[in-house]
What we know:
The chain is built from 3 helices and no strands. The protein is mainly α. 23% of the residues are buried.
Amino acid sequence: MEDADDVEKTAAEYLARLGTAAVEDLRERAEMAAADGDDFSAAAWTDIADAAKRLLDKRYSI
């Protein structure tokens, strides 16, 4: 996924819905897509998971 705003928005939506479990869920989605041979979707889910992790880190940083 190239559009950083869409990636961050999607990550924030997953965090709102799943809380801290969102990152693990998103990484699992990336793994499933990769296992299915869908590299484009795997990359997109990985980007979203990375953004969710950054948002969590930012939220809980001192």
